From TrEMBL:
Name this protein carries in UniProt: Outer membrane protein
Keywords attached to this entry: Cell outer membrane, Membrane, Signal, Transmembrane, Transmembrane beta strand, Transport
SUPFAM superfamilies in the record: Outer membrane efflux proteins (OEP)
Xref: PANTHER family: OUTER MEMBRANE EFFLUX PROTEIN, OUTER MEMBRANE PROTEIN TOLC
Species whose genome carries this gene: Sphingomonas vulcanisoli
């Protein structure tokens, strides 16, 4: 059956359908979506890109400026040639009538970059949600690994007690006891390492999601994914926000070339405005007459003007051609970038698909291995009780069973993360696809509509207040990540693998031969 985008969108929505349980994947993603500084930063950057449109439009609007000046000749005010003392003021108006198309192309380029910015925000959302799902699954995996290793330590502690009891009655040798002690020490070190990995995963979760993970629930099943990698690639090529971004940037680069070429064209503007001059009682002196004659002259002059101003560039030092060539080179780079991104999209989709399939096959294999190792362990223990198996064989069987369980948990983690990475590679792992109910989704178009036609010079935004949460404060202390206490069975003063207690010679007999 052909794969359809609609079916995929519906599947992703089901992936995060509302649930009543606490600490679910959906709730984690909703928490991250509303409080993440990564997304807040990307949204702010897009709002900055939106402002490129009114900036470009400003060059097509009326320009008004005022001037005010006070001058006096340094040689006095008794000579007309010296200009006397004058207070001047005026208002200058200029309205562009023709600019060779540079403004129109600049506006088109700015609008194309807005489209590219929205696609970049989609890319940021998809990558961020993939990181969030990975962090969620890392915690679940490492919690399971800690539990498995803790269970293994408890089993080996029981084994060591049994080995020492059997050694007391002569059923086992000191070598058997030493092997049990060594394996318990190794298990405790593996548990400590697993606890460290869990702390790291929880800290990563808090960095990405914004809160400390507590009692995370198993994730919902992934939606049905494409049957073949070719279908996944087809969806990715048709829906990738990265490709949409580079396509819009290519259009913007084309407009930039046209805008640079327009610098060769003449510009025509309508100009005019009123002016005012006040000689401050020095008009007679400026005319070469005594100051007593000032009453014969008007001390102020007012006039208004209107006209056209045509500027025809004849030679600009080669700068225009350089700007055109520069814009062409930038456009060439964007075209090549598009091909590179297309390669990345194809590779990411195929790689995620391959990892997802491989992890699924590994899950089946590790399930069989865990089941077989469990049976082998039970048989080895029974045969050891009958005297046909050694202690080291039982220990090896227990380690193999533990390894199979850890590998199974890891494969389940890898399959889920790869599946969500495949959704992201296909462009359907964004907020609009994940059914994040509980609040309005961020609308990137709303800010554009609000600012695109603004023309006031004093219409600033209010002071920004961050919406992201901080992760300062004490770190919760979880029981499953507390340092291991000394093990009385091993006789250690500090946790961690050490020499088995029964093989450490005392100071009084350190140089004496050990019992054989």
């Amino acid at each position: 059956m052909p794969w359809t985008k609609c079916a995929l969108f519906g599947g992703v929505a089901l992936l995060l359908a509302p649930a009543a349980q606490a600490d679910t994947l959906r709730e984690a993603l909703l928490q991250a979506y509303t409080t993440s500084p990564v997304l807040a930063q990307a949204r702010a950057q897009l709002r900055g890109v939106d402002e490129g449109v009114p900036i470009a439009k400003a060059n097509s609007r009326l320009q008004v400026s005022g001037t005010l000046g006070l001058t006096q000749s340094a040689d006095g005010i008794t000579s007309y040639q010296h200009g006397a003392r004058t207070l001047t003021g005026g208002v200058n108006l200029s309205y562009p009538l023709f600019q060779g198309g540079r403004v129109k192309n600049a506006i088109n380029a700015a609008e194309a970059r807005v489209i590219a910015g929205r696609a970049d925000l989609r890319t940021t959302e998809g990558n961020f949600f993939t990181d969030a799902v990975t962090a969620y699954m890392d915690v679940i995996r490492d919690q399971s690994v800690v539990e498995l290793n803790a269970g293994n330590v408890r089993v080996l502690e029981t084994n060591l007690r049994a080995s020492r009891d059997r050694f007391q009655v002569g059923d086992l040798t000191r070598t058997d006891v030493a092997q049990s002690e060594a394996r318990l020490s190794i298990a405790r070190s593996q548990l400590a390492s697993a606890q460290g990995n869990l702390v790291r995963s929880r800290e990563t979760y808090r960095r990405v999601i914004g809160v400390w993970p507590t009692n995370l629930q198993p994730p919902p099943e992934l939606p049905k994914l494409p049957a073949t990698p070719d279908e996944a690639v087809e969806i990715a090529l048709g829906n990738s926000p990265s490709l949409a971004s580079v396509a819009a940037n290519t259009k913007a680069a084309d407009y930039d070339i046209n805008s640079a070429r327009a610098l060769r064209m003449p510009t025509l503007s309508a100009v005019g405005g009123p002016s005012y001059s006040d000689y401050l009682g020095t008009r007679a002196q400026a005319s070469g007459l005594p100051s007593s004659q000032n009453y014969l002259f008007s001390q102020t002059v007012q006039q208004s003007s209107a006209g056209l101003s045509l500027t025809v560039p004849l030679y600009q030092g080669g700068g225009v051609s350089a700007k055109v060539r520069q814009a062409q080179a930038n456009q060439n780079a964007v075209v090549e970038q598009g091909i590179d991104i297309e390669r990345q999209v194809i590779a990411n989709a195929r790689a995620a698909y391959a990892i997802f399939i491989a992890a699924g096959q590994a899950i089946g294999a590790y399930e069989q291995a865990a089941s077989a190792n469990k049976l082998a362990l039970e048989g080895t223990r029974a045969e050891n009780s009958a005297g046909s198996r050694t202690v080291i064989e039982v220990l090896n069987a227990e380690q193999e069973y533990l390894n199979a369980q850890v590998q199974l948990v890891t494969a389940e983690h890898d399959q889920y993360v790869a599946g969500f990475s495949l959704l992201n590679a296909m462009g359907v792992a964004e907020a609009s696809n994940l059914n994040l109910e509980g609040g309005a989704l961020y609308d990137p178009v709303a800010n554009y509509k609000r600012v695109r036609n603004r023309f006031g010079d004093w219409s600033d935004n209010p002071r920004y207040q961050s919406v992201s949460t901080r992760t300062t404060g004490p770190t919760p202390r979880d029981e499953d990540t507390q340092p291991l206490p000394p093990d009385p069975l091993l006789g250690n003063d500090t946790p961690g693998p050490q020499l088995p207690g029964s093989l450490v010679p005392s100071p009084s007999n350190r140089d004496k031969p050990r019992d054989k």
